[in-house]
Amino acid sequence: MVPDVSTPTTGEAAAAPRPAEPRSALRALASARGTSVIGALLVSVLAASFLVEGFASGRNAGFVVLDIAAIALIALPMTLVIITGEIDLSVASTLGLTSAVMGQLWVAGLPLETIVPFCLVLGAVLGAVNGLLVTVAGLPSLAVTIGTMALYRGLAYVILGDRAVADFPLSWTGGATSRIPGTPIPWVAVLILVLALVFGVLLHSTAFGRSLYAIGSNDEAARFSGISVGRTKLWLFVATGAVAALAGVFWTLQYGSARADNAAGLELSVVAAVLLGGVSIFGGVGALPGVLGGVLLLGTIRNALQLADVSSDTLSIVTGLLLVVSVVAPNAVARMRARRPGPGAPRSRRPGGPDVPRPFSSRTER
């Protein structure tokens, strides 16, 4: 008699890996990785304040916010994508294509009130293309988004070429960099905080957020438990594309120039900030408070180096090093913890030698 494979047995159900439960924002901040990010941020700020002239001024604080605004915006949905075990490397190209379309439509005579919503929809469509290729075609997100990274950047050059459109209304360009009255902080910080609150509540306080951790821990187990894995990932890519387009609109107005090469290479800074904030590149682990700390840490280091007249090539090297460290360090710590015996760990005796603890891991290797 052939057993019914559609219904799991009791042993199979017990053996199925349980999805990791997401931690609250406060517990995330109190975790080892969250604490290390905040600690590194405080050390960087204090060191730069004493060693770099002009860093501690209020005016410079406003510049730091403007410098990291696009990174912070895109890092919010990118956090959710990486927690599910996927990645989107086309975000900078989406930003550049949005900027090119924005400039071309402005030259064609359309008002910005029409152009901006169109660009946001365009970004959502570009994100949907990534999502459909990943969820419907079943292709790996790394390969897909590397391809669309080149495709979207190429389309930006087809639309705008090497031209730069720089005659946007002063009311729009000035508004993008305007400060909150009585403070040196630009208004875009409010937009970042509002979106961070929305994504934070969605990730840490809803069933949808819990499903993201379950997908990242084991997508097959999540699918078995009734979670629509494909649809969830698709909407995350759509949201990432839309927010990348929003960052493209802000970038264009901030610098007052629409160019096809805007934000080239920004995707590495976004991924570095997310991983620095404690999100695992393998999925299933991470929290938004840590990511915001990672964004600020990256922005602080970049700003201090710029004030010290460090070249842009060196900034790229530093970003790459931080990206490598953010991937290698957590895995090294996890391996060290796995080798450390817990309470009551069995001990094996070597012939003629002392007792040797037998290391074990409480987590199944993926």
Please describe what this structure looks like.
It is found in: Cell membrane. It is a multi-pass membrane protein. It comes from Spinactinospora alkalitolerans. Keywords: Cell inner membrane, Cell membrane, Membrane, Transmembrane, Transmembrane helix, Transport. One of its GO terms (cellular component) is plasma membrane. The structure is a single chain. The protein has 366 residues and is mainly α. The chain has one domain: ABC transporter involved in vitamin B12 uptake, BtuC. Helix content is 67%, strand content 2%. It is built from 15 helices and two strands. It has helices at 10-15, 25-30, 32-51, 58-83, 91-107, 112-135, 141-160, 170-177, 188-204, 207-217, 219-224, 229-255, 266-276, 288-307, 312-339, and strands at residues 347-349, 355-357. It has a two-stranded antiparallel ribbon. α8 packs across α12.
Concise synopsis of the structure shown:
By secondary structure, this protein is an all-alpha fold.
